[in-house]
Write a structure and sequence with these properties.
Length: 301
């Protein structure tokens, strides 16, 4: 039987710098989100030391930032809360970077879904390595590139407006690669196939991600609200390990960071100058056991 559906138009194929690649309507909507995104919780934190992150924080909160200091002003209190949230996000980036190594300055790393670029800068400052960051947002790639130029590290840290599933980078050229809270925008089999292609044998892959908990059942209401908020599709924990096993990535370290990230959300909820409205949903998702914040480290075999 032949089914002809005249209402379904062929998807447009926009140009990319390395070569034409397919971009779905969904991917275009995701790019639209990040091209328009200017949340103070990202820009105000990044401004502190020009490390712009698009992920959450880990570690214990210094709750004294909420105290009224003698002679302190509301503005001073806001600055202290902003700095504390940034410290926790920076600790998350350092935790991820610590699992990439050891690396030498001649090594090359791949940052899949690099946002405004903070993670690649953290890896470069730590190891002196070359870094290639990839984002589907033209605006983020330009912003991150400008940051690298200002730091004078643009000879080693480069950002590209490309699809992380289809980078066009050379096979086996990377010693380490990662996704920091960007896996929920893509199919894991396609993603891990690209990481496995780019990593040399014995290379290291790291992800920190929010996943839904298989023991809860399916995606909870809170997980669905997070999906709607960011236009993403949070995977179950099990899917990571299945997809890694199918793509030559063998887990060597798995850490549940849920307890370590809850304090970040408790503080962020009280940062009235920075909240985006998703804070209670994250706390609810972690609280009812439907959602987990996970670190997975894997070797490319
Ligand atoms: C962090 O980005 C969030 C994502 C990249 C998507 C969803 C992540 C999950 C773990 C589910 P951000 O820093 O831009 O978010 P926000 O503006 O809320 O700080
Ligand atoms: Mg943020």
């Amino acid at each position: 039987m032949t089914i002809i559906d005249a209402t379904t138009a062929a998807a447009p194929v926009p140009a990319q710098t390395h070569r034409p690649t397919y971009q779905s309507t969904y991917q275009t909507r995701v790019a639209d989100y990040w091209n328009a995104e200017e949340n103070p919780v990202n820009l105000e934190l990044g401004k502190i030391d020009d490390l712009y992150h698009h992920h959450y924080g880990v570690g214990d909160v210094d709750w004294s930032v909420l105290d009224d200091e003698p002679g302190g002003s509301p503005a001073r209190r806001r600055d202290r809360v902003t700095a504390e949230l940034h410290r926790l996000e920076q600790a998350q980036a350092e935790l991820l970077a610590s699992h990439l190594g050891p690396l030498s300055p001649t090594d090359r790393v791949f940052d899949a879904g690099c946002g405004r670029g903070g993670g690649s800068v953290v890896a470069h400052l730590r190891y002196g390595c070359h870094a290639d960051g990839v984002t589907i947002s033209r605006k983020q790639a330009d912003f991150a590139g400008e940051q690298a130029r200002r730091r004078g590290i643009d000879d080693k840290v480069r950002y590209h407006h490309r699809n992380m599933l289809d980078t066009g980078f050379p096979s086996g050229a990377y010693t380490a690669s990662w996704n920091n809270e960007s896996t929920m925008y893509v199919e894991l089999d396609l993603l891990f196939a690209e990481h496995a292609r780019l990593l040399r044998r014995g290379g290291r892959y790291v992800t920190i991600t929010g996943c839904y908990n298989d023991t809860y059942g399916r995606a909870s209401r809170e997980v669905s609200l997070i999906n709607a908020h960011y236009i993403c599709d949070i995977h179950p924990r099990s899917e990571y390990f299945r997809a890694m096993a199918r793509n030559r990535l063998v887990p060597v370290h798995v850490q549940d960071l849920t307890a370590a990230t809850i304090p970040y959300w408790q503080l962020r909820k009280q940062a009235e100058h920075l909240v985006t409205g998703i804070e209670d949903t994250f706390l609810g998702a972690y609280g009812n056991g439907s959602f987990q914040y996970l670190l997975i480290v894997a070797d490319r075999v």
